[in-house]
Amino acid sequence: MLFNSFEFLVFFPIVTIIYFLLPQKLRWLHLLVASCVFYMFFIPYYIVILFVTIIIDYFAGIWIEDSTGRRRKLFLWGSIVSTCLVLFVFKYYNFFIGNFNDIAALTGWNYSLDLLGIILPIGLSFHTFQSLSYVIEVYRGNQKAERHFGIYSLYVMFYPQLVAGPIERPQNVLHQFYEKHQLNYQDVSAGIKLMIWGLFKKVVIADNIAGIVDIVYANPEGTSWQWLLIGSYLFAVQIYCDFSGYSDMAIGAARVMGFRLMENFNTPYIANSIKAFWSRWHISLSTWFRDYLYIPMGGNRVEGWRKHFNLFTVFAVSGFWHGANWTYIVWGLLHGFYNVLENVLKKFAWFKAWIETQVPMKKRLGAFVVFHLVVLGWIFFRAESVSDAWVVIKGIFTGQGSSWVPPDEIMTFGYLSLAFKLGLVLVFMAVDLTMHRFSRGVYDHRTGHWFRLSLFAYLAALILLIGYWGDVEFIYFQF
Asked: Comparing C-alpha atoms, which of 92, 91, 257 is closest to residue 177?
């Protein structure tokens, strides 16, 4: 079920109202059933795959807690391998087999393996990582094994963050399913405001500019450098509004019922260093890789080439996590290079002083540079292939074509509509650049009641009047 759908508009209030009407002992069951219904709106029988991983990690957690010595590590790795194997089959098997067949064809070896005719289950990477965080935390002794199968299932399947995060830790969420949440004006108000803001970012900004981005990247060879650049800028806005919009709606929907999910985005495009960008972008995934891959590999405890290798490896894996395509791998490697280069340059006093500066103009210039480095990476992320990405980059830097006149396909929108879409993006970015102050003034009570009410009424009106209501999934659903 999509957050930006009529079905969810009906689903959400019904589920929430029933939740508060039920006695505490039945609320977990209600949320679990609702989460199953929510997930089964996509491909119903794929819920079986989800429950396979749930069963594996549920029993693994108990066995790890009840065991000692080598048996604990055996159960841990059994859980990790089994859960990752499910992810591999559905997400990566065809990628590896396809590349094997390509190599065989290039070497003249007349042999090929068959691809599997399967579709990647929605959000498989997200709930796989959430399951893995549970068994790892139980192994580390930071979390007691959950003996209630229904509660553990709900931890993995909780519908607001089921298909695109945030990727939660068991310490933050599991205990909340046992707590009795009262209907609270503060929670309902804050949650609905977040949902409105997230829906605005999705249907008013992201979906309205998606058509322009699609046209530019569908034919990069025949598009002038000006529109390749505009399309790349717009994709940076699109993916941010699309993904952070989902996170806002997920956090908001949970908040209405009294649940607190972790923050997932914090105005990443104002970051003046690559490290700062990754502390603001998809925070739940960044911290997941930090806690469960980077630190176990040595983290900051090692120095020199080993530290750089660890950092580079984490981003390479992050790229592969995003998708079984060389474009995502190159994107991850590029960000790995950025981070290693930044670490190397920090040894120079002038560079360290630059990224740690509190001088506004220097911070803005640093953010300008970092933003464009990120946009360069987004080109690989968005392109259909690595070769297409190089066409876009080459076109921009060599001045391919030379026309501000939009491609014919974009002209079908009309000049007025196109100008409106681009103007809307500029207005949004101006607002989002001050979001770290804006949000704290809007979501708490330091601003006037009528100001806050008027603002979100205005956003709701824009959603209804100019929101794009086609059947557009969230970008990160494919991961």
From this structure: 257
